[in-house]
Amino acid sequence: MRSGRLIYLVGPSGAGKDSVLARLREVSRPADRLLVAHRYITRPADAGGENHVALSEHEFLQRRDAGCFALHWQSHGLHYGIGREIELWLAQGLSVVVNGSRAHAANLAETCPHAEVVEVTAAETTIRQRLLARGREDAAAVDARLARNRALADCPASYRILNEGSLDEAAQRLLAWARGETQPTCQN
Predict the structure, then answer these.
(1) 6-179, CATH topology level
(2) Between β-strands 6-10 and 116-121, what pairing exists: parallel, antiparallel or unpaired?
(3) Among candidate residues 41, 67, 68, the one with its CA nearest the CA of residue 52
(4) Alpha-carbon Rg for the chain in angstroms
């Protein structure tokens, strides 16, 4: 049995990564042999955004120290983890998509050398409009996010998805990558 593919999905806030992942869950079929891993996050379950496993910081650190996470990182004051269950899925030949972090993508080679980084992105003007429409942050905070996006622009991705069209189009591009139907678009 062949080993599955680990797809580490990254993208700036406002690029639509969570929306693309949600749509991917809807359009993928059993024949695609594709799973999207849930993240373990030190954020309340009802905080909005993605469906995740909510843990207190104490619980998260206990699990991290016990080796329960295949991947883990800290960002924006929260802890994020991907459970070791992905190792079983990969061993069964399933492709696994992980909602990752651009800031930690460069360190991925140490823990998961075969992971494929895929970046969902959009034009800065589109991202700005989306962030302002979300209403979670004022214009100054949005500008700070955009500055961070520029600082992380050299993310080591093998494939980029420009999410400027329909959500279906972006999800289908990600699915095509997971199926091995497309070639890398980036040279790193």
Answers:
(1) Rossmann fold (3.40.50)
(2) parallel
(3) 41
(4) 16
pLDDT digits (tens, 9 = 90+) for 127-170: 999 999 988 888 998 998 898 888 777 777 889 999 999 999 99
- Break the chain into its structural domains and give their ranges: 6-179
From the list 156, 163, 169, the residue with the least C-alpha distance to 115 is 156
pTM: 0.89
How far apart, in whole angstroms, are the C-alpha atoms of residue 76 and residue 57? 14
Q: Which single residue is written with the structure tokens 């214009």?
A: 139
Angstrom distance (rounded) from CA 138 to CA 183: 39
- 64's CB contacts (< 8 A; 6+ apart) are 72, 79, 81
Looking at residue 58, its amino acid is H
